[in-house]
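Suppose a colleague, Dr. K., hands you the sequence of a protein chain of 105 amino acids and asks what its three-dimensional shape might be. Before reaching for any lab equipment, you can write down a predicted structure in token form. Begin with the sequence itself:
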Amino acid sequence: IIRSIVVGRGNTPVNQLHHKTSHVVKAHSQAIMAEALMDVLTDTEKDIYRRGRNAKSHTMAKNATVTDYRSATGFEALMGYLYLTDQMERMMEVVSIGLERCHLL
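The predicted structure, expressed as tokens, is then:
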């Protein structure tokens, strides 16, 4: 989704596209987005986020704090839930709101 949004913003050199995308999908950025989105999520979406955030992890990110990593995992769990339940429009809405509120792109 992030790559699609970045590419859709116009003709940009490949290195810049990769840099922008990498910046948005790192754990710290996802954690910031997750926090900024709490007021627009439904109760079900908040539950999915919390379950993902609180799940036991057997790995650890190299360049993220434990808090950021867990929040990012919750955010990814929510995106996975929306994808698997065929709620692509809602997923795009949530990601777009998060990007706008956090000024990530």
